[in-house]
Design brief:
single chain; about 140 residues; mainly beta; seven-stranded antiparallel β-sheet; six-stranded antiparallel β-sheet; about 0% helix
C-alpha cells in the first residue's frame, strides 16, 4: 500500500483513507466532506488524528496511514500502515464492549471508558493488518 499524498480521500467503496507517516512536518486538511459530514485530518511521522464534525474519531501514535476506514454503529474497520508498531485510540460508544480482530484473528475484548475511548496496540511487523473493532 502507499501513503495518502492528498492526506485524506474518499475511496470508491465509500470508506476514507488518510494520513502520511513519512512527513517530517505536521500538515492538516480541514472540512473534507463525505456524505454531509466534515472530516479534519492532522498527520506527520509522530501522530495522525482524524476528527468528524469536530469530534475526535481516531488518534494514532506514531503517525500512520489508515486505509479504507469505515465507522458504523457496529464498530470501526480499517487497515493500518506505518514504520513501527502503533497505538490506536478511537472514540466509540461509552461503556461498551468490543471485540478486536487483527487480520481476522480475535485478539480479545476491550471496554470503552465513560468517554467512549478505547486504546489498542497493533504490531505492524512490515505488513498492513486489517483491524476490526466490533460491538459485542
Amino acid at each position: 500500500m502507499a501513503v495518502i499524498e492528498e492526506l485524506i480521500r474518499q475511496e470508491a467503496d465509500g470508506s476514507i483513507s488518510f494520513g502520511n507517516y513519512l512527513m517530517d512536518e505536521k500538515k492538516k486538511v480541514l472540512d473534507f466532506e463525505v456524505k454531509g459530514d466534515l472530516y479534519k485530518v492532522k498527520t506527520y511521522n509522530e501522530i495522525t488524528k482524524l476528527e468528524k464534525n469536530g469530534k475526535m474519531l481516531m488518534e494514532v501514535v506514531p503517525g500512520a496511514t489508515i486505509h479504507k476506514f469505515t465507522f458504523t454503529e457496529k464498530g470501526a474497520f480499517f487497515m493500518v500502515e506505518g514504520h513501527e508498531d502503533v497505538q490506536l485510540t478511537l472514540e466509540m460508544e461509552p461503556t461498551t464492549e468490543y471485540k478486536v480482530l487483527i487480520d481476522d484473528v480475535n485478539v480479545g475484548k476491550v471496554k470503552t471508558n465513560m468517554a467512549g475511548k478505547v486504546t489498542i496496540g497493533v504490531e505492524l511487523q512490515n505488513n498492513t493488518p486489517f483491524i476490526k473493532i466490533e460491538k459485542v
